[in-house]
Amino acid sequence: MRIILNAFSFLRDKLRLQGIAHIEAPMEITSPCDVHRLISLLGLKPEDVEAVFINRVIMPKETLLNENDRVALLPPGTPGSYRLMLGIKKV
Q1: Is 67 contained in some domain?
Q2: Residue 15: is its pLDDT beyond 60?
Q3: Which of 6, 27, 71, 72 has the greatest number of beta carbons closer than 10 A?
Q4: b/e per residue, 12-50, with b = 16+ CB within 10 A?
Q5: Full residue range of the structural domain in which residue 77 is found
Q6: What is d(CA 41, CA 80) in angstroms, rounded to the nearest whole number?
Q7: Contact (Cβ atoms closer than 8 angstroms) between residue 65 and residue 35
C-alpha cells in the first residue's frame, strides 16, 4: 500500500538521519497499518509524535491507513494557540 508522508519540525531531522524521505514522500507499507505501526516503522518513539493528520484531518493514532492517504506527523511543541486551532488540544 502506498501513502504520502510529511513530517514536521525535529521529526524531519530524525528521519533525515535514517535516510527516510519526509516531505511529500511516497512510501510503501504493508497493510493493515495504523499510525502507531507507521511511527514504529519509521524508527520513531510514540512520544515523538503528538498529532497526526490523515488527508488534512486530525485523527487518532489508532486510525488504519488506506491506499494513497496523505499522512502528516507533528511533534510535541506546537505553540498553544495553534494546538487549539488544529484540534490537537480540546478546550
Answers
A1: yes
A2: yes
A3: 71
A4: bebbeeeebebeeeebebeeebebeebbeebebeeebbb
A5: 2-86
A6: 29
A7: yes
pLDDT higher than 70, residue 71: yes
Q: What is the mean pLDDT of residues 41-48?
A: 96
Q: What is the CATH number of the domain that holds 30?
A: 3.10.20.30
Q: Give the chain's domain count.
A: 1
Question: What is the CA angle 48-62-68, rounded to 5?
Answer: 90
Residue 79 covered by a domain: yes
Residue 91 lies in a domain: no
Q: Give the type of residue at 78.
A: T
Give the mean pLDDT of the chain: 90
Tell me if 59 is assigned to some domain.
yes
pLDDT surpassing 60 at residue 91: no
